[in-house]
TrEMBL record:
This is Histidinol-phosphate aminotransferase family protein. Gene3D superfamilies: Aspartate Aminotransferase, domain 1, Type I PLP-dependent aspartate aminotransferase-like (Major domain). The lineage of its organism: Archaea, Methanobacteriati, Methanobacteriota, Archaeoglobi, Archaeoglobales. Its cofactor is pyridoxal 5'-phosphate. Residues 64-323 form the Aminotransferase class I/classII large domain.
Length: 332
């Protein structure tokens, strides 16, 4: 887990350059000031109905308030989706490993489906799974299905009575769009504050009602609520700014990594890389330089040559590229 691993470095008095976590480096300029102001909220219980929060989410997204859900990180909403299933779930792979963990917790049979619209549609048509999960943009590959593709998948699921969950935790780093599904987003990734924990989404009304009937009281703390209510109305303009900055830096990384022999892919704020070297060797070399990356051999259908890096600011990206150049020279 990200937190456990990073904390082990902090206990040693180290603050590594963290390319392992897919967090926005271009935070809002007034974020620190906002967090300081939000501290006052910690002295009081948040309103458990969260009426003002629901109004802000609805006004910012256009979603009907009857469909809105929110939680202590998007992971709380993901977990709820798995609780709605009884038999099995199809997971589009390779992807976020927590989906399969939740499936196992609830005793669900898991069907792995490749990241291909043709394969996904074929599986839904022929196998009619109880539920299917798609991470879009996908973690760790960075692949992204555009709106027309997701609409086709959604319509097929509706026709076959298949529950569709779309994890859009990274949607703000690409072009946002809605889809008729259990739709889940994260605010704290685009703001660059994952430790605050705030996720929100749009569920079918029946399930949104069930979620609120069973959720833990005060699941969103006052500080997270304060921050969400301030930044959600500004999220569209801020995301467009971030996408432009990320695109510039992502292109810079891809160009220079290709010169070093690494093939990269990804349309969000991270890249999946593959070279001729063992990813674990790359990891250990960079770790000695106080730089962290994410090896990917624990993801289905990826191998020990794959690793993932976040897109960061130019100076940090240059630091990574300099050390990778040294690694390649020493190991070629």
């Amino acid at each position: 887990m990200h937190g456990d691993y990073y904390e082990s470095y902090l206990k040693k008095g180290l603050k590594p350059l963290d390319f392992a976590s897919n967090i926005n480096p271009f935070r809002p300029g007034d974020l620190h000031e906002t967090l300081t102001e939000a501290i006052e909220s910690a002295y009081y219980y948040p309103q458990n109905s969260y009426r003002s929060l629901v109004e802000v989410i609805s006004g910012s997204t256009g979603w009907d308030s009857k469909n809105i859900v929110f939680g202590n990180g998007s992971i709380e909403l993901i977990e709820f989706f798995f609780r709605t299933l009884r038999k099995g779930v199809a997971i589009v792979q390779p992807t976020f490993t927590e989906y399969e963990r939740f499936a196992k917790i609830y005793g669900l049979r898991v069907h792995d489906v490749p990241w291909s619209v043709e394969k996904i549609l074929e599986f839904i048509e022929s196998r009619k799974p109880e539920g299917i999960v798609i991470c879009n943009p996908n973690n760790p590959t960075g692949e992204f299905f555009r709106k027309a593709v997701m609409e086709e998948i959604s319509e097929t699921c509706e026709r076959k009575n298949v529950k569709l969950m779309v994890d859009q935790a990274f949607i703000d780093f690409v072009k946002t769009h809605d889809v008729d599904a259990f739709q889940i987003r994260s605010l704290t990734k685009i703001l660059g504050i994952p430790g605050l924990r705030f996720g929100y989404g749009c569920f079918p009304e029946e399930y949104a009602e069930k979620f609120h009937d069973t959720r833990i009281p005060w699941s969103v703390n006052g500080v997270a609520k304060f921050v969400a209510e301030k930044y959600l109305p500004r999220l569209g303009a801020f995301s467009r700014y971030v996408r432009a900055r990320i695109k510039t830096e992502r292109n810079h990384l891809v160009r220079n990594l290709k010169k070093l022999g690494f093939e990269c892919r990804g349309k969000a704020n991270f890249l999946l890389c593959e070279g001729e070297f063992q990813a674990e060797d790359v990891f250990r070399f960079l770790e000695r330089k106080n730089i962290l990356i994410r090896t990917c051999s624990d993801f289905k259908w990826l191998n020990n040559r794959h690793f993932r890096i976040a897109v960061k600011k130019r100076e940090e990206n240059r630091a990574l590229l300099r050390e990778l150049e040294v690694f390649v020279q020493e190991n070629s």
